[in-house]
Request: fold
Amino acid sequence: MTGILGAYCGSFGRTTLLDIQRPIASHAHPHMHLLFKLSGADRGMLVDDEVHMLSENSCILVNSWQRHADVEALCIAPTLVLALYIDPVWYAARTNHSADSVFSRLSCDIGPVTRQSAARIAGWLVRPRRPVDTTLERAILTIIEDTVARAHLAPRQSSSDFRIRRAARALRDDIHVRPDLAALARQVGLSRSRFFDQFKNAVGVAPVMYLDGLLLERAIDLLVSSQAPLDTISRQLGFSAPSSFTRFFRERVGFPPSTLRAASSPQH
Reply:
């Protein structure tokens, strides 16, 4: 099982220090996602349909709502990874880039500035007392800017179908594990098959994976910002049992929800 050695959530999004022991299943996030290997074995990741290697000299970059998963044959030993999940709106507000910008390259070389900043953040995550948000945000922004200079950002090319925007908004407004997607397709005036095709073209992932991402992020928010029991969170998200919620969570991030809560607590 993957272990989480430290986690921190802030206005920028979140960052986690992961001891990845097993391949992680296909999933997607609303965040800009940056992965840096700190030690251990190299890992291969499938981002959309391209394989990229995570190594000491190369990081992996994943755009918001871009499908990604470990390649089992290329993940044969544990890896210590610093993972950044960056809110695109937060980043856009601090730079001259649009929140809809995407990485032109999905992997790039790691410069000395990024290497030092990643090691510094990892060190902070395992300390009982962590720096204030602004200190951590400055280090994260340093990493992003250095990485963007190497990988470059470009405008996102996607459909702007108002029916898909309406459907995505409906899913965001009522995050629940079992929505009626066929009914949602009818509400926006599309057949089920046309709805699925148009949604993936506009957003980048199918409606089911989009919903999974929303569920995962809502679960993470509840785990780190409330003391609600896991069975309460499970029920609130529409899972039939806490075990189903735990399985859903672990398959997508590599560890159970209780582990994230413990790693994110102030006393960790």
